[in-house]
């Protein structure tokens, strides 16, 4: 496949911006990405974008300019950003255009996501009896994992502690204050074993990435980062996912494992070659389990990894260098692209106080969402 | 005597010791819960599930779910939920009754009961088996 690069990256700070709509945050991110790439809106030949709950992306042309470009709205739940990026990459790789945009944004109300059973093909009683909450799924997945693989509650706390510490060094993070381990562990329990500080919150934010062919990037003299591979996968039989009134006794694979394997194969590298990683950390347990599902360690080895602080900024494999979802919050349509944005920053060496030392050359991002899908992107410098 | 109205029709059998009603695929034998509706149901037969199983995972619900869809009582009391593996059949998500968090252990035996989750409305739950 033709080599494709990210040549511009923009972000609207995550968190709460009361007086700015989700889509306007998207426009903000697009303008920043254009400035970063040294391009004008008229240079963008096609665009892919979307949000989960803040409207259609293509209306952005009202603000950005009526250039007549094809603008495809993407609506793919938690993989909205990943699917937009994948589509933009494919359009460039296929030779449809030389410069494409991927953009994701969102603006969610406060509190836990409120899902309607009918939208998910589920009976009303499932919601009525109080079993249709994403937070319960994450808690039950890590609860079983802890029992089977000897993960301690304290380690869950260490994940959140690291996230908030990294967030203090990141100008697009929402939570910018450190939280100490005891406070995290002793906070009100939301869904055992996960306390309030171990969950991310629905939030607001936007990310825009400008994609170009390698030839175009060279012509422009761009500070580009190569997209080595992107893989989006849905769940295989026998997996355990959000919103499941029952699961099969025949246990099967996981969408993350499928996406991860496909991304490594397409990039021609393995987990041991990755220098920095952004892993979906909707809550503390997710980061721990996703370390294994993405091939970085065996089940249970996370205890040792955290004891040796291997996923800190200066560790062997820094994970969630911008504080992840825990510190940035989760605007669904933008969240997966934030991970790719952060990896672009790190590979360009522009991370400032949170820059991973040693000139990282490879970066891995992983998003997971309902109803069981995963997107992995590997970038190379 | 439980006179509460079931939260939905066809979730469990009407007998002295009720059983959850799943569905069994006619060709593969795969068992699902709940019984499918609409076109998806055409290859499945109703299949009453085992009343007993083992605890597969669990959690507490520490805050009141949003309304709708939640239809529990105004005064919120934290509750427990989990997954119970019905051996050889299916792993069902369920409310857990008659236990505190500290009592719950992976693989412990559980049995089906009916419970009033809101005034006058019943649903199924599992509790530790004696």
TrEMBL record, chain A:
It comes from Blastomonas aquatica. The lineage of its organism: Bacteria, Pseudomonadati, Pseudomonadota, Alphaproteobacteria, Sphingomonadales. Residues 4-107 form the Thiolase N-terminal domain. This is Acetyl-CoA acetyltransferase. It comes from the Bacteria. Pfam families: Thiolase_C_1, Thiolase_N. Residues 256-379 form the Thiolase C-terminal domain.
TrEMBL record, chain B:
Pfam families: OB_ChsH2_C (PF01796). This is ChsH2 C-terminal OB-fold domain-containing protein. Residues 48-114 form the ChsH2 C-terminal OB-fold domain.
């Amino acid at each position: 496949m033709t080599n494709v690069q990210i040549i511009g990256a923009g972000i609207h700070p995550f968190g709460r911006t009361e007086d700015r709509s989700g889509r306007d945050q998207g426009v903000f991110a697009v303008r920043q990405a254009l400035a970063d790439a040294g391009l004008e809106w008229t240079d963008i030949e096609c665009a892919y974008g979307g949000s989960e709950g803040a409207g259609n992306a293509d209306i952005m042309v009202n603000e950005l300019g009526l250039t007549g470009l094809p603008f495809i709205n993407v609506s793919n739940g938690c993989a909205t950003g990943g699917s937009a990026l994948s589509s933009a990459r494919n359009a460039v790789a296929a030779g449809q255009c030389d410069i494409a945009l991927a953009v994701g944004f969102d603006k969610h109300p406060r509190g836990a996501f409120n899902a309607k059973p009918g939208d998910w093909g589920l009976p009303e009683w499932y919601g009525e009896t109080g079993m249709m909450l994403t937070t319960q799924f994450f808690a039950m997945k890590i609860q079983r994992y802890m029992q089977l693989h000897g993960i301690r509650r304290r380690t869950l706390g260490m994940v959140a502690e690291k996230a908030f510490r990294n967030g203090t060094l990141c100008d697009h993070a929402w939570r910018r204050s450190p939280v100490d381990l005891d406070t995290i562990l002793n906070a009100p329990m939301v869904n055992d074993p996960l306390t309030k500080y171990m969950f991310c919150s629905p939030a607001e934010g936007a990310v825009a990435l400008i994609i170009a062919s390698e030839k175009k990037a060279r012509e422009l003299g761009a500070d580009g980062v190569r997209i080595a591979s992107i893989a989006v996968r849905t769940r295989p039989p026998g997996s355990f996912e959000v919103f499941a009134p029952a699961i099969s006794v025949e246990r099967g694979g996981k969408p993350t494992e499928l996406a991860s394997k496909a991304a490594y194969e397409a990039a021609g590298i393995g987990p041991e070659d990755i220098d920095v990683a952004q892993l979906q950390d909707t809550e503390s347990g997710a980061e721990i389990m996703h370390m294994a599902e993405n091939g970085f360690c065996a089940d249970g080895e996370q205890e040792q990894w955290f004891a040796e602080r291997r996923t800190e900024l200066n560790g062997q494999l820094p994970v969630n260098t911008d504080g992840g979802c825990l510190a940035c919050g989760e605007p669904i349509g933008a969240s997966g692209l934030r991970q790719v944005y952060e990896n672009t920053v790190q590979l360009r060496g522009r991370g400032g106080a949170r820059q991973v030392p040693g000139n990282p050359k490879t970066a891995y991002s992983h998003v997971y969402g309902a109803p069981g899908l995963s997107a992995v992107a590997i970038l190379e410098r | 005597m439980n006179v509460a109205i079931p939260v939905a029709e066809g979730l469990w059998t009407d007998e002295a010791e009720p059983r959850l009603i799943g569905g069994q695929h006619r060709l593969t034998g795969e068992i699902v819960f709940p019984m499918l509706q609409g076109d998806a149901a055409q290859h499945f037969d109703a299949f009453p599930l085992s009343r007993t199983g083992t605890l597969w995972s669990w959690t507490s619900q520490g805050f009141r779910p949003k309304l709708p869809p939640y239809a529990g009582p105004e005064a919120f009391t934290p509750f427990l939920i989990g997954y119970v593996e019905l051996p050889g059949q299916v792993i069902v998500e369920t409310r857990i009754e008659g236990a505190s968090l500290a009592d719950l252990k992976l693989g412990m035996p559980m049995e089906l009961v009916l419970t009033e989750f809101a005034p006058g409305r019943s649903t199924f739950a599992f509790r530790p088996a004696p």
